[in-house]
Design a protein that fits this description.
Layout (H helix, E strand, L loop, with lengths): L33 H14 L11 H11 L14 H14 L11 H11 L3
Helix pairs in contact: 1-2, 3-4
Length: 122
């Protein structure tokens, strides 16, 4: 004798999918991280712009404030070159794979990033 469990209505189309969240239409804002708050305070002190009240309660809003108040990336002759950390990581991958990094990657950080993404060990 075999026991066949029955689950009435398990596959009925009227049931539909169960919601993952209790209330899917309300998206509560996540609070900002401690690092985010510390960086925002440093930017506030440097620029003289005060942090808006209650901004630390919303991670996305604080991120937008940081992007608006941080210093732009330096532009110059070597601004498009890969960073020393990027080069070191690429050379470590090259040693592991026994495959040299193409010379043109050392002159363009985007090319270096693409080479790393396509060659990093998985």
């Amino acid at each position: 004798m075999s026991f066949q469990p029955s689950f009435p209505g398990l596959f009925s189309p009227a049931r539909g999918a169960a919601p993952v969240e209790a209330e899917p239409h309300t998206s509560a804002a996540q609070p900002a991280t401690e690092k985010q708050i510390a960086y925002a305070r440093v930017l506030s002190a440097k620029s003289g712009a005060a942090l808006p009240d209650g901004i630390t309660a919303d991670r996305a809003a604080l991120s937008k404030w940081i992007d608006a108040h941080k210093a732009p990336a330096p532009q110059g002759r070597f601004s498009n070159y890969p960073s020393s950390k990027q080069v070191a990581f690429a050379e470590r991958i090259a040693r592991l794979k026994r495959n040299p990094v193409p010379p043109e990657c050392f002159r363009d950080k985007t090319m270096m990033s693409r080479w790393i993404d396509s060659n990093k060990p998985r």
